[in-house]
């Protein structure tokens, strides 16, 4: 009998913001994923890269500034690819070790994943996603002179902002499918994938980022997953979040989710992309379920005892 497939999307809080935090976080994450595998699930793992890609981009930019005659700044798409390798390396080894400690001999593979975007996506005309470290006004002026865009962050300085276009297609999807069919644990689509644009036979990196949950939803549809689980900082989706009238939701229909989105219940940069990804996935086929919950509740949520289920 074919195993059930799960796409598990890890949030940045479950990976930390630096190397020691990341290693410690993976030590807590790996046993949960190993439990899923031990229970018979086939897992494709995606993850955030927001702190890591910002650290890489900032570090590479600082290095280029201090060695202007030898080095140039590194494109954002390259930084995104570097972050996939950096995070994937730790996840891959942490998961391999946890599985072997249980007597489970399963190959864990990381795929540097590119995702095509539409060059005419409206997001390119309205960049909103902040990346990198906070800068002074003078540093922001230098970025603006380069053609990059910055925004003031109250009390912190300035940050670069980039577009967040919708994912169109996962370039390495056939490789991902082949590894899953071989019953491997696959880490892919890190940070939403490296955004690329098609130019003839070539792929050109875009100076943008993709919402990783939207790419996770696309991946779940492409591999015909049974469940899309989006792990975030809260146990449940809530209405009226952060107010005295806050109301956690345990189950949500597609129709209700669309109504809540239209009514503006979900924050644009955090929960809204998760709900969008869940709705698109569940609508794309029969017997598909999306779950939004915290890592601490992930095991119970998969059994229907916690989290928010959208079906």
From TrEMBL:
Please list the residue ranges annotated as the Aspartate/glutamate/uridylate kinase domain.
Answer: 16-292
Give the matching Gene3D superfamilies: Acetylglutamate kinase-like (3.40.1160.10)
Catalytic activity line of the entry: hydrogencarbonate + NH4(+) + ATP = carbamoyl phosphate + ADP + H2O + H(+)
Keywords in alphabetical order, please. Answer: Kinase, Transferase
Q: Which GO terms describe its biological process?
A: L-arginine deiminase pathway
- What does UniProt give as GO cellular component? cytosol
GO MF annotation: an example? carbamate kinase activity
Q: Which SUPFAM superfamilies match?
A: Carbamate kinase-like (SSF53633)
Pathway of this protein?
Metabolic intermediate metabolism; carbamoyl phosphate degradation; CO(2) and NH(3) from carbamoyl phosphate: step 1/1
Could you tell me which InterPro entries the record lists for this protein?
AceGlu_kinase-like_sf (IPR036393), Asp/Glu/Uridylate_kinase (IPR001048), Carb_kinase (IPR003964)
Instruction: Respond yes or no to whether keyword Protein transport is given for this record.
Output: no
Keyword Transferase among UniProt keywords: yes
Superkingdom as given in the UniProt entry: Bacteria
Pfam families assigned to the protein according to its UniProt record, in alphabetical order: AA_kinase (PF00696)
Similarity section: Belongs to the carbamate kinase family.
Q: Which PANTHER family match?
A: CARBAMATE KINASE, CARBAMATE KINASE-RELATED
Name-wise, this protein is Carbamate kinase
